[in-house]
Amino acid sequence: MLRVNCFLLAGVSLVLFACNQEQPKKNFSETKPAAPAVMAPFRYHKMVEVSPGQDFDVMSWGRGSGNQSSLLILHSDTAAKTYTTTTGDLEGAITDVFNSDMDIDGNPELLIEAKSKDTVDYTAIYAYEFKEGKANKLDFPKLTTNQKKGYRGNDNFYMKDGKLIRQFPVYDGNTSAAKPTGQKRVLQYNLRSNSLTVKDLSADTLKTTASKTDTVAKKPVEKKAEAKSAKTEKKSKKHKKETPKKKKKKRHHRSE
């Protein structure tokens, strides 16, 4: 009996010793949950909540590795229990979706940013305004001739003060050999009368900079031309001074 008690006491001691040992610390650092994977044939998905009960699911879908796909917008109005679908062609891969009301009329706009590539990395915007459950596609303004000067893509779009801002670096040409000038063109987009308008916020700045560059470049040429002109004039005067004047021969008249 004594031997059994000794064994029991030894077993309890071992259990207590094991419990008192320091347990390895668990890492409780916060980790961001991974974005849910989009199953094929879908390539992109983002849910935009405009207001409580007003949700838009923006998706792109298509099989294959091409640059072309299709756009799908699902509008859920849970209050009115209505659900509508908007589709369209899409070029490039969707990178972001902006929610706005630029004309402040209470009708939301979705601005879908899609990046693509041919000779340059460029970005396209697919714009829709939703009114009474219907989608109205808005034509996004193309760059004008002046705005395209030095354009090589690498656009950066963002919302500021309720307006869509577009910013991209300006190059010294439009070919692949062009180099960045360090300047940036900034365009501001707004919505008026169901049409998108654009304003070049950097036009004056770029124009002034270009004018200063031209002036600096022209100054040495002008000085050189002036020096050359002065040298020519001095040489001409010297030539005039050294040229001897011809003496007139006197005629002698014979007396009869």
Short account of what is shown:
By secondary structure, this protein is an alpha+beta fold. The protein contains two helices and twelve strands.
Could you explain the architecture of this structure?
By secondary structure, the protein is of the alpha+beta class. The chain has a domain at 42-201: Periplasmic lysozyme inhibitor of I-type lysozyme (Lipocalin). The protein is 23% helix and 41% strand. It has two helices and twelve strands, in the order H-E-E-E-E-E-E-E-E-E-E-E-E-H. The chain has helices at 2-20, 203-242, and strands spanning 42-51, 54-61, 68-77, 82-91, 93-100, 109-117, 121-131, 134-138, 156-160, 163-171, 180-192, 195-200. A four-stranded antiparallel beta sheet has the order 1-2-3-4, with no helix packed on it. Strand 6 and strand 7 (121-131) form a beta hairpin. The longest helix is centred in the C-terminal third of the chain and has 40 residues, at 203-242. It is globular, with a radius of gyration of 39 Å. The N and C termini lie far apart (188 Å). 11% of the residues are buried.
